[in-house]
Amino acid sequence: MKIENFPEKIRELLIPKPEGKLIFRCLNCQSIYNTEELFYTCPKCGEILLIYDENFDRLKKLPPALWRDIFDYRKMLNIDSLKGIYRYYEFIGSIIPINSIIYLGEGNTPVIEANSYLQNKAQIRFFFKNDGQNPSASFKDRGMASAFSYINFLIKKKKFKNILAVCASTGDTSASAALYASYIGDAVKSAVLLPYKKVTPQQLLQPLGSGAKVFEIPGLFDDCMKIVENLSENYNVALLNSKNAWRILGQESYAYEIAQEFNYDLKNKVIVVPIGNAGNITAVMNGFIKFYEAGIIDNLPKIIGVQSEHADPVYRYYSESDPAKRRFTPLKARASVAQAAMIGNPVSMPRVIWLEALYNKLAGKQKVFFVQTSEQEIIDWQLIANRNGHIACTHGGETLAGLVKARKEKIINETETAIIDSTAHALKFSNFTDKYFQNNFEKEFKITSKPELCNAPIFVKPSTAVENNFEEFVKEISDKIAANLKISKK
Question: Are residues 352 and 285 in the same domain?
Answer without folding.
Answer: yes
